[in-house]
UniProtKB/TrEMBL annotation:
It comes from the Bacteria. This is Sulfotransferase. SUPFAM superfamilies: P-loop containing nucleoside triphosphate hydrolases (SSF52540). Gene3D superfamilies: P-loop containing nucleotide triphosphate hydrolases (3.40.50.300). InterPro entries: P-loop_NTPase. It comes from Spiribacter roseus.
Amino acid sequence: MNRRSLAVRIGRLAQSLPQSWLRPIESPFVRTLVRADPNVIFLLALPRSGSTLTYQALVHALEPHYLSNLGNLLYGLPWLGLKSSQLFCGHHDSNFRSKHGFVEGLCGPAEGLKYWSYWTGVGLTDRHTLARNDGKLAQRVNYFRDAVRATATPRAPMIAGYLGHTLVAKQLREWFPSAVFIRLHRDPLSNALSLLRSRADKYNKWFSVKPKECEDMEDRTVQAQVAAQVYWLNRRLDALAHDDRTINIGYEELANAPNTTMNRIIHDGNACGLSLEMQKTLPSYFTHRVADPDQDKDAAAIFNEIRNLEQVHGPLKRSAQH
């Protein structure tokens, strides 16, 4: 199954149908089961930064609540979607494979563009995100918070891995003050080169999240575009540097020592009030690539573009540690 498969097309057709009219069926459960705080972890990461692998590792090791492809079909019914995912996918074993962020199978972790744009008003561009902030957004956010409060627990929080949330990290903290953020770092050069490769392989235009600083770059080289995309999205997340409920991890750290990194996430998450436990171990390592500007012309060009941006606008935080 892939994004063009018949099953996915049928799923997208189901998503296109109105679902809010069914909400009175689930809302009594939400009101009855609501708890004190929404136990939720937001994975905040850039496209092609290892976000899908990290999301899969979290779901596999911790067995939390999460947005599965099944739950994503029920985008308008968050409580029912989470409960259905728990029922059918509660002990999901990941094969750690994906294709441009898509994980196959009903239980595969879903990023959830339609889901999250509906509930948090966040698209893949600043322009789209601002357009979503209509009068009903506050009501939707409140209902979604209650749905999570009625479902997730400190032992099994909801984990979300939507890349668009990178654009609204500060707003997300206002909406979910008790949430734990996991900020995923990746070497900016390797990240940007991976974006470039994805565009060459599958996408002939922009790939994934596009910050407002990149809106007028159509006449620039693709190397300059991906460098700016990585630079400005990282700058958004650098704003979390002093957020005491943010766990910083490196993609290279996770790839080299998955279980050690997961244990640190568990330790730091529990210090924030969660009750996480390692339910299943991870592989001993994940293969990954590190870009070398001395060995690749594209990497060299991107390296120079990132360096120029840092000289003009300031350096990025490259450390995964506080």
